Amino acid sequence: MQIDQKTMEQIISLVLKQIAGQTGGLADATAKNDNMSEHTFCEGYLPAKKSTNPKEVVIGVGPAFQSKIQHTINGLNLSEVLKNIKAGIEEEDMIPRVIKIQKTSDLCFMALEGAKLSGSGIGIGVQSKGTAVIHQKDLYPLSNLELFPQAPLMTLELYRAIGKNAAKYAKGEKVTPIMGKNDPMVRAKYQVKAALMHIKETEQINPDLPYIEWR
Fold first, then answer.
1. Given the DSSP bridges, would you call strands 132-136 and 146-148 parallel, antiparallel or unpaired?
2. Residue 72 per-residue DSSP state
3. The whole model's pTM is what?
4. I need a labelling partner for 11 at 20 to 30 A (CA). Which of 90, 122, 169, 206 fits?
5. Rg of the chain (C-alpha set)
6. 150-172: pLDDT as tens digits
7. How far apart are CA 132 and CA 108, in angstroms?
8. DSSP 47-75
């Protein structure tokens, strides 16, 4: 069955209205959040601090990463995603560090906050659905070094290449941008699932919680 753009937008609107009705609205759910019961997973983790190690590259992950969401939008295990990004960084003789960014679900801000905490000033942002970006600490939030917006087309090999490129930026080397795949039909096919995953990520935001050292 073919679904045109208008029908897809209507479906998303109905789904969002249903979720809002069940939760009392996203803003209320985020504010109340059952006395932070949804955020107890961060207990026992150390608050993240700015590093001075120039060999370090920070991977900033979303608030629902490996807590409420375990797989990307196309089914990749988030543990394997992290494993491959780390491997790419380590292959360039650099040091990966993972930080959970709990104050936002926006990809660019995740990466930028990670870059600010990184000793090298380079950060990689990864949303739980799989979208990724390489950022630098002195850039504007919506500017970046490399962006990978189509999460359904991401592969473990691509995440590994992202880690390698981020490490090269950190070393000040010449970097060849990664040629990502592009499929104009992906947005229509995954639009509803992407919206639902973003809602789940956003529901886990808590501005009162610090960034934490993850895994």
1. antiparallel
2. -
3. 0.81
4. 206
5. 17
6. 999 999 999 999 999 999 999 99
7. 9
8. BP-----TTEEEEEE-TTBTTTB-B-TTS
pLDDT < 70 regions, the chain: 1-42
Q: Which domain holds residue 65?
A: 56-171
pLDDT of residue 37: 40
Q: Has residue 11 been placed in a domain? A: no
Residue 9 exposed, middle or buried by CB count within 10 Å (0-12, 13-18, 19+): exposed
- HSE-up of 50 (CA within 13 Å, CB side)? 8
User: Is the residue at 91 inside a domain?
Assistant: yes
Q: What's the number of domains the chain is made of? A: 1
pLDDT for the residue 12: 61
- C-alpha closest to that of 94 among 158, 159, 172, 146: 172
Tokens 């962006």 correspond to 147
Instruction: Please tell me whether residue 141 adopts helix, strand or coil conformation.
Output: coil
Tell me, yes or no, whether 124 lies in a domain: yes
pLDDT of residue 13: 64
Helices (H), the chain: 5-23, 26-36, 78-91, 107-117, 156-171, 186-203
Q: What is the pLDDT of residue 33?
A: 39
Name the β-bridge partners of 59: 98, 124
Kindly state whether residue 48 falls inside one of the protein's structural domains: no
- Please list, in sequence order, all residues whose beta carbon lies within 8 angstroms of the beta carbon of residue 33, skipping any fewer than 6 positions away: 39, 206
Q: What is the CATH number of the domain that holds 117?
A: 3.40.50.10150
Residue with tokens 């290449």: 161
